Amino acid sequence: MLDSPIANSFAFYRYPNFDSNLFYSLDAKKQTYTIGEALTLGNIVAQAPGYTGPLDVVNGENDFIFCQGECATPTDLTAQVQPQLFPAAVGSQSFNVPGVGHAINSHYNATLAYKQMLAFLKTNNF
Asked: Which domain, by its residues, includes 105?
């Protein structure tokens, strides 16, 4: 069943790197997600060749939504975002948060993502 906790876990989380009590609490509050949303997601992703600023791409290493569960191996798909979608971006970087799925904020390693993003903002004077 598509709306079961198991389906939610598979799509958004990387076991065992999250608190199961938090997971069940969040799962009980989830909103609808339609097939139409899934089928049209690609329509909002487009190349931005005119963007020349810095870019920070952060994914969970095991993000199923963006990388089918393997963002870092055998190819670093997160690093490919900048040259594919923002070819003129300068000062860009990418980071795969280890042991994390799509719902980065709900995993134990979320703090690694925050540290990386804050360092990127500081480096780029934001």
From this structure: 5-123
Q: Is 97 helix (H, G, I), strand (E, B) or coil?
A: strand
Instruction: Tell me the pTM.
Output: 0.86
**Which two structure tokens, joined as six digits, stand for 86?**
């923002």
pLDDT tens profile 21-56 = 999 999 999 887 777 777 776 667 789 999 999 999
Residue 23: how many CB atoms within 10 A of its CB? 19
Is residue 51 within 8 Å of residue 57, measured between CB atoms? Answer: no
Domain tally for the chain?
1
Q: Cβ of 81: how many Cβ atoms within 10 Å? A: 19
Determine the distance from the C-alpha atom of residue 37 to the mean position of all C-alpha atoms in its chain, rounded to a whole number.
Answer: 17
65: tokens are 């939504």
